[in-house]
Design brief:
177 residues; alpha+beta; Translation Initiation Factor IF3
């Protein structure tokens, strides 16, 4: 086989692979806490378009001056963004304050499966999940904390010590020498 022909075929294969792949970009949509409804809808449409193009979107709420006294307004705005875009995107990093701005990162729904893997059916997560619900020694209301498999002292295989514990000295007495 000719080496030139081999290199040509390798280049064609690489071109096909590049044509089919999509590089995920990070797009940013900046908002303000006192944004008007029309401006909000305009920005959300941009975020929706970016998510549909399989790009990650970072929503940033910028605070100025006295707006810093009310970060809950920015948090409510980002919750509204999540609700409006839940059909096309999923939260990867929840809203958090970073200096004078609050950020939220969303990924497209098609990538959502690769970001968080759900547990296999029939397998439950969490400690003590395989134990039955009404185990011996637990109260029916479940108000007592679980012991985590530690046996009570009376149920251990060691015999109880026959000698009593030493008594503390009386408050007004002097130690004997």
């Amino acid at each position: 086989m000719d080496f030139g022909k081999y290199k040509y075929e390798q280049n064609k294969k690489a071109q096909k692979a590049r044509k089919k792949q999509h590089i995920t970009h990070l797009k940013e949509v900046k908002l303000r806490p006192k944004i008007e409804e029309h401006d909000y809808n305009f920005k959300i449409d941009h975020g929706r378009k970016f998510l549909e193009e399989h790009d990650k979107v970072k929503f940033t709420v910028m605070f100025r001056g006295r707006e810093m006294a009310h970060p809950e307004a920015g948090f409510r705005l980002l919750q509204k963004v999540v609700i409006d875009l839940e059909a096309v995107g999923q939260v990867e990093i929840p809203a958090r304050m970073e200096g004078r701005s609050m950020t939220l990162l969303m990924v497209p729904r098609s990538q959502a499966g690769s970001v968080t893997k759900p547990a296999a059916p029939g397998v439950s997560s969490g400690a003590g999940a395989s134990k039955p619900a009404a185990s011996a020694g637990s109260s029916p209301g479940g108000s007592r904390p679980a012991t985590g498999g530690v046996k009570p002292a009376a149920a251990s295989n060691r015999p109880a010590s026959p000698s009593p514990a030493p008594r503390p000295a009386a408050a007004g007495s002097k130690p004997k020498s």
